[in-house]
Amino acid sequence: MRETINVEMDPDRRPDYAQLVKALGGVDNKVAFLVAMMHGIRNNARKSLKRKVSYFRTSYLNAEDKCLIAAVALQNGVSEQDFSWEKAFLVAEEYSRGGIALLREELSNRSDFEKAFPLDVMGAAPDTPSTVDESEPTDE
Length: 140
Prior knowledge:
Radius of gyration: 17 Å
Helix content: 40-55%
Oligomer: single chain
Shape: globular
Strand content: 5-15%
Number of helices: 5
């Protein structure tokens, strides 16, 4: 498995990631990347990378992150028989680039981005069901 996740590092794109990190409460680069990837998926925005530059180490990905990236790849053109982490990371990188391109537009159009974007993300998240049904009595 390769050592880094890449992003296209246009000199003026780095502030977009920095603003996303700030909007999300100072999360690390991995989380900003994953959020941008999910924003790209949510809006069907996938863009190829023209020049790749390291962004964060793949060793920072935990099992859940890898599962998410694998699921994204399998839902977007990578077959189970042809699956490789290289292909999965490429799909994730392309969706992240697409997501950050969309966020760039939103950043320029919304003065309150830091307040609104996390609410938009939470609004798109499914409700978490309660794990305990309080209506049923328990045997004690």
